[in-house]
Automatic annotation (TrEMBL), chain A:
The keyword Cytoplasm does not apply. The keyword Membrane does not apply. This is Sister chromatid cohesion protein DCC1. InterPro entries: Dcc1. It holds the Pfam family Dcc1. Belongs to the DCC1 family. PANTHER family: SISTER CHROMATID COHESION PROTEIN DCC1 (PTHR13395:SF6), SISTER CHROMATID COHESION PROTEIN DCC1-RELATED (PTHR13395). GO terms for cellular component: chromatin; chromosome, centromeric region; Ctf18 RFC-like complex. GO terms for biological process: DNA replication; maintenance of mitotic sister chromatid cohesion.
Automatic annotation (TrEMBL), chain B:
One of its GO terms (cellular component) is Ctf18 RFC-like complex. The keyword Thylakoid does not apply. This is Chromosome transmission fidelity protein 8 homolog. It holds the Pfam family Ctf8. One of its GO terms (biological process) is DNA replication. Its main location: nucleus.
Amino acid sequence: MNDEIKHFPENVQKLLTDARIPIEQLKPIYYELTIGEHFPDDSIRLLEVNNSLIEELDKSKKLVIRGAHDDSATLCTSDQIFEIKSAETSNTLLLASPLDSSSVNKENGCIALTVNSILHSKLELTQCVSKLIRIRQLFEENPYRGHFDDEENSTRKITMENLRNDIQASDQAIDAYLKKLNVITINGHLRLLDFDFRTKLIEYIISIISIQDWSKDNIPIDKCATEMREICPKYVAKQFLEQIGTISNDGNSIALNGNTISTHYALDLLRNLEKMKLSEFMTCWRECVPAEFPIDLEKLKEFVIISEGTISYIDIDNLSEKPNERIKTLFSRKNTWTLSELEPFLSSLTTSNAEFNSLLAMHTRCIMKDGQKYYVPKYN
Amino acid sequence: MVQILIQQAENSTELILIELQGALEYAADKQSLSGERLGFLFFTQNEMPVCVIGQHILDGKMVELDKPLLVMRKRQVDGINNTSYQVECTIKRKLLFHKRSKPIVHYAPKKC
């Protein structure tokens, strides 16, 4: 029993009696809530987060919100992106702060709490997918073409900082996408290599290694880049070589990535055509790609649609980001799909396996044909 | 496109979140409320909070939040391009008064 704080002050005792709250059931310390002098504090916002965001805030001391004025705002961390939405509540939220947290007025056991904010909403976060297509659009305004490149003319110079400011995506997603696009750095700016220029570079490299009698698994970077100076500066050649091969432990040579090379040739054949007969494509493909590199249709999964003996190119970045629209487009090009065919086109729209499965369940139905599972549109 | 930073404030403030069902009605307009007493908060011997606001008694409980809340203060210097937020406090629990309030009934003293 706290003998120093035996009774509440008279007015409080009266209040408790009127309220029929038995005084002996209460702890001796109580709080008086008063409206503070800064009320109403309109600059306060509540943001609902999670433990990993709190850790991120502790670690890097900041969280970043990105968005255009007409876009919804998104919270971006190094590996996640969330949509920020305001949620109203019919309840009343009071934020109270102790006037002086260390002092308890010993005479009457009272701690003063001031309320400067009364709120009816909080900001909620919903995990969402990155909006990366804008990156490619930015780069395609001025792709790099080697010595014929007119760098002075480029209207827009892009840096990593620009991207972080302009793109609603997590840092990791941006980095991964840049790698996928095979972006290179020229004079501190990021550039995309023009597709036909890449074809030229690949063919040049293949002829150089033949002339020099180098193994495709052991190409000396510096020497090769020097040999390529006819079509591009050495530092560009070096970056390109590092993109199409695996660097050796000592950093001096690369082993060409056969898959990268053969995929490039496949895209070169298909991207300007509506479609091709699959058998014809396989023949042409085998002819274009140097004999020592394997060709594997499986590796083209996210670039092509194979249907009824024909193969055609599909640009995944140009598909709608809205799941139902994307599924509509896919099924308009092919009526039946296997799960492994659908997966590359839909998995980037969802943030979990469960979400992916529910997306399928919502828009497709499953049929069995010759012992294989196929997906067809739910409604014809 | 803008990038807005949310940063930890240098000194964090200690804040208590109290959630009440329904709305508080103000007798006067907002500005003149500073200094006005809102009510009292008591705790029973078994840690249950009891709130008295005006003529209402509210029974509640201390609840851990499913998702913690950041209390942010918006700072705007020179228009929208310089907006930033400072995190004053992280809230992990709240005092939730979820039951209907009970009225305080004053009994007039009986005349003998």
